[in-house]
Amino acid sequence: MVDAKTPPDAAADGPTGTAGSRAGKTSASRKGSSRAWATAASGRTAALLVSPTLLVLTVVVLYPTVMAFRESLYGVKGLDPKTGFISDTEPYVGLRNYADIFGAAGDRFWNAFGNTTFFTVTTVALETLIGVAMALIMHKAFRGRALIRAGILIPWAVPTAISGLLWRWIFNSDGIANALLGHQVLWTTEGFHAKVAVIIAEVWKTSPFIGLLVLAGLQVIPKEVYEAARLDGAGPLAQFWRITLPLVKPALLVAVLFRCLDALRMFDLPYILIGAQKNSVETLSMLAQNEASNVRFGPAAAYAVLLFFYVFLIALGFVRLLGADVVGDTGGPRKPRRRLRRTPANRAEAPA
């Protein structure tokens, strides 16, 4: 009689091996379900924590934007062509208020659009240069640095309305500006000189803001980096271009982004300094306010909605193009490290 031996592999496939595999599958399914439950719980917790912010954004941003768009679909109260009487309600005109900007009535809109863009580009460029210079000065260690820092930050602390009145006094026909120039310039009238007055006042007011954010970025740069650069023979200019500017770039980009968004909504400074309904300095915010003050709420809401989308597109393009630098993440997505499965051979090769 032949003694039949069961091979080890066959024994593993027996009842005991099948039970072990079933137990392993059950354990894996339990781990998967617990992991899915933990992920869902963390998602609910994250949604709960973010919900107050979303609620505030809905009340402050979404609801006013929707109501402004709804108001822009209505025209101005006037004579009803059917009855011949003055209408008590605003007539529904659809997208006519938006279509009017491409006709003869859109000259004022495009003038305001050009002024807004010109002021934004010019003031932000000058403020960036002056703000970086201010930050470098405030970052240096010298006697009286605290006094210099306080003096540089004073313009940013002055309210914009007070700043506008101050510069209006400076740019008067018999003011300090004309006294320094030696001849009379009517700064607060129509013309390019009115634009120059607004740019000077705006740059003086908001350059310290960029300087303050850049100074915060300079504070976190280790001194050892500059010491190593000096040992390598790098001069002050090379240190600025190769060390200071790249390391302070995230803070600088955030400052420029904030200033762009603020300059696109410029209203109070040119309104107080130069005045309303001045074609040389009228911005989109001033145009919308003037239309609303003349009880033309439909066109005013249309201009406000267009300004909102203009600001939104600028912010979106800025973040999409420079988002990695804004958040300070210069590297790409990290690849997950591959975990090696420990085998008896690996255990044998591992040192004791």
TrEMBL record:
Membrane-traversing stretches: 45-66, 118-138, 150-170, 300-323
Low complexity: compositionally biased ranges: 1-20
Domain of life from the UniProt record: Bacteria
InterPro entries per the UniProt record, alphabetical: MetI-like, MetI-like_sf
Cellular localisation: Cell membrane
Signal peptide: none
Stretch list, region Disordered: 1-31, 331-352
Bias kind Basic residues: ranges: 334-344
One BP term from GO: transmembrane transport
Domain (ABC transmembrane type-1) ranges: 113-318
Keyword Transmembrane: yes
Protein topology in the membrane: Multi-pass membrane protein
GO cellular component, one term: plasma membrane
Entry-linked SUPFAM superfamilies: MetI-like
Pfam families, sorted: BPD_transp_1
Record's keyword terms, sorted: Cell membrane, Membrane, Transmembrane, Transmembrane helix, Transport
Family per record: Belongs to the binding-protein-dependent transport system permease family.
Official protein name in the record: Carbohydrate ABC transporter permease
Originating organism: Streptomyces sp. R39
